[in-house]
């Protein structure tokens, strides 16, 4: 099973909720097809939909709904720094990258139009030259104890300590301080 992306922990903000950690879906969510099929085959997906339309989840955010529903089949979120929910909060990288670093898979928010096209162009050009840097270690979810579920008390940057991916962009940049990852 797999439920991966830019994770967040609600333990200080929503201690009354029956779950704490979830993936912020604006920054992208990676779910394995097998996980979704299991959710449907067990009847849990239908139960969750019923909770949304006729139960206590009617005011849940989509992110919460997914996390709470998956937890019913024993699938819990795993963080990964390639998913970024808040690209503008990461001052460790200069514009236009910010938190949407070169190895990012999904970034949010990016304005439609020219900004989005430029971001796609930057990532495409970077990956065309550096695809070899994306390894199995890069694709592996972060260990729970290494993921920064509450970076800066709000989870604004998706960070995995000891991730192992060495940013070629970052390593070639002089003068960047307080970097949030390797």
Summarize the structure.
The protein is α/β, with parallel strands linked by helices and 182 residues long. The chain has helices at 33-41, 44-54, 62-71, 114-130, 136-139, 168-171; strands at residues 3-5, 7-9, 21-23, 29-31, 78-79, 83-84, 106-107. Helices cover 30% and strands 10% of the residues.
Tell me about this structure.
Helices cover 30% and strands 10% of the residues. It has 182 residues and is an alpha/beta fold.
Quickly list its features.
globular, alpha/beta, 3-stranded mixed β-sheet, single chain, 182 residues
The backbone outline, from C-alpha atoms, is globular
Radius of gyration: 17 Å
Secondary-structure element string: EEEEHHHEEEHHH
The number of strands is 7
How can the largest sheet be summarized?
Answer: 3 strands, mixed
Summarize the topology.
Blueprint: E1 3-5, E2 7-9, E3 21-23, E4 29-31, H1 33-41, H2 44-54, H3 62-71, E5 78-79, E6 83-84, E7 106-107, H4 114-130, H5 136-139, H6 168-171
Parallel strand pairs: 1-5, 6-7
Antiparallel strand pairs: 1-4, 2-3
